């Protein structure tokens, strides 16, 4: 199984290669997950009072800073949704795919994916103990389904952080990307029929 990899295509573009069917499905669900960002439990998790016991400061923070953060999250979600749009075509048999998107969008991807992880964990009440004890044995179990998605999104975030931590020479360039707006052709020698929603 090919691992995910973020690579510089050139000075202006980044590629995410090694996308399998399950990772593609998880990425496609992120925009829908982000719609829950305004739910009360999520807001409470995201926007804790910064200074305990200072009601005036906390109120000012909620009125001035919180809207700016919400705008950043919303913008990040919109950016990621546009960048992953080509994955919507791949609902049948999938071989490994790649996406190419502007390098200026990398920070937005990081914000959107981390917010999706927070929403999933908060909604399903996932704890540290769950990570050590819960097994992915029942696809109908809400917590297991959330943790399954968390696993794949966390892996993607990890690869993205690795990419950001590298210098231009370490990250290298992906010379396999063709100059086209269409996704790269399927490798028929390595089929995967796990496309679609999970």
Keywords:
disordered C terminus, 52% helix, 198 residues, three-stranded antiparallel sheet, 7 helices, mainly alpha, 3 strands
Summarize the structure.
This protein has 198 residues and is mainly alpha-helical. The chain has one domain. 52% of the residues lie in helices and 9% in strands.
Word description of this protein:
By secondary structure, this protein is mainly alpha-helical. The protein has one domain. Helices cover 52% and strands 9% of the residues. It contains 7 helices and 3 strands; from the N terminus they run ββαααβαααα. The protein has helices at 21-34, 40-46, 55-83, 106-123, 128-133, 142-165, 168-171; strands at 5-8, 13-19, 97-102. The protein has a 3-stranded antiparallel beta sheet with strand order 1-2-3. β1 (5-8) and β2 (13-19) form a beta hairpin. α1 (21-34) crosses α4 (106-123), α1 (21-34) crosses α6 and α2 (40-46) packs across α4 (106-123). The longest helix has 29 residues, at 55-83. The model is unreliable at 178-198 (pLDDT under 50).
The largest sheet is:
3 strands, antiparallel
Unreliable stretches (pLDDT < 50, length at least 5) are 178-198
How many helices? The count is: 7
Percent in strands: 5-15%
The order of strands across the largest sheet is 1-2-3
* The number of domains: 1
Into which percent range does the helicity of residues fall?
A: 40-55%
- Backbone CA Rg: 18 Å
SSE pattern? EEHHHEHHHH
**Separation, N- and C-terminal Cα atoms:** 19 Å
Shape: globular
Secondary structure layout plus pairing:
Elements: E1 5-8, E2 13-19, H1 21-34, H2 40-46, H3 55-83, E3 97-102, H4 106-123, H5 128-133, H6 142-165, H7 168-171
Antiparallel strand pairs: 1-2, 2-3
Helix pairs in contact: 1-3, 1-4, 1-6, 2-4, 3-4, 4-6
